[in-house]
Amino acid sequence: MNLIDKVRSIQLAQKQPSVLVIGDFMIDHYIWGSATRLSAEAPVPIVNVKNESTTLGGAGNVVQNLVALGAKVTVAGVIGDDAAGNQLIEILESEGVKTDTIIKDNTRSTTVKTRILVGSHQVVRVDREVTDAVSQEFEDELIEKLGANIDSSDIVILSDYNKGLFAPGLTQRLIKIANERGKKVVIDPKGLNYEKYRGAYIIKPNRKELAEAAKTEKISGIADLQHAAKTIFQQTGATYLIVTLSEEGMAIVTEQTSKLLPVKATEVFDVTGAGDTVIAAIAYFIALGLPVDEACELANHAAAIVIRHIGSATTTIDEIIKNMGGH
Fold it and tell me: Which residue among 92, 179, 180, 195 has the highest number of C-beta atoms inside a 10 angstrom radius?
């Protein structure tokens, strides 16, 4: 059975894998306007606001990709006890996502990234956030609440945006609990400390993140990739590194082998959020029982679809089949 037929049979079976996303959830706030003159107060444009919109950001983009593919999603994380936090939960629940393990901390603010755009040009971005490590009290509360959700999930994603949730201690507790319960952990990493991801099944850095974490100057070919990956395997004991290579596609790396999957895109408009699409698709197809190489092949097609759109986008099984040459 070829891969298109496999995906079609999955579709016909209407299986709905359960995916637990633990991560840094945030709000992306966009303000669109026009600017025809400079301010008299400072050499900056005066933006006349025409439109505003609010979407999920950070780990929320992973969630929206999973929902679009057809997964049953549960989320966990720590947000502020504020209006933005309430809005974030409302959006998640409107997507049919279980939010009972999102914890509100009144000492934090929910991360909100406000982008002001004139035409298609971003003029400024304003971030409201607290990135201090989550307190021990909230760590313990999160672990206590998560047990049942880990048990009922087919796979666990840790979506790290370096906003204070994934301190080394908590990250290790989460991975250990998931592994003890026989659940594979897939990680979208951030920062330089990959040792905190020890025990993960898959870690998915992009080329730049891998080079920085492995303290390598640059990664230009498969040999460089394998050399950098060796450092990460020593630190983490991960089974796979999936390295996204922007317009070159992605690489599946184990301690012994590397396999390059060339990009499937015919047009590239915007790679924003493509990494979130990749990790969502990989986790989704592994949860359905596909091997890693096939899950990555499908994720590569999913990424090719979303980078044809401006801004973060999602895709569906039908679109993936079509992109693979199916009808």
Answer: 92
H-only helix segments in 219-325: 222-236, 274-287, 292-306, 317-323
Cβ(325)–Cβ(4) under 8 Å? yes
The pLDDT-based confidence of 166 (bands split at 50, 70, 90) is very high
Tens of pLDDT, residue by residue over 168-212, are 999 999 999 999 999 999 999 999 999 999 999 999 999 999 999
Q: List strands edge to edge, sheet with 111-118.
A: 48-58, 25-34, 111-118, 121-128
Of residues 265, 267, 276, the one with CA closest to residue 312: 276
Looking at the domain assignment, is residue 35 inside a domain? no
CATH of the domain at 130: 3.40.1190.20
Whether 298 and 320 have beta carbons less than 8 Å apart is answered as yes
pLDDT at 309 over 80: no
Q: Assess if residue 48 is contained within a domain.
A: no
pLDDT band for 271, please (50, 70, 90 cuts): low
Structural domain range at position 121: 3-27+57-323
Instruction: Indicate the SS3 state at residue 40.
Output: coil
Q: Do the domain assignments include residue 317?
A: yes
Q: Look at residue 283 and tell me if it is in a domain.
A: yes
Q: Is 5 a catalytic residue?
A: no
Catalytic: which of 5, 188, 276, 318?
A: 276
Q: How many domains does the chain have?
A: 1
Instruction: Choose the weakest-confidence range: 38-42, 183-187, 221-225.
Output: 221-225
pTM of the predicted model over 0.90: yes
In this structure, how many other beta carbons lie within 10 angstroms of the beta carbon of residue 138?
18
- The values of phi and psi at residue 72, to 5°, are -95, 120
Q: Tokens standing for 275?
A: 């990494």
Residue from 32, 106, 82, 23 nearest 57 by CA? 23
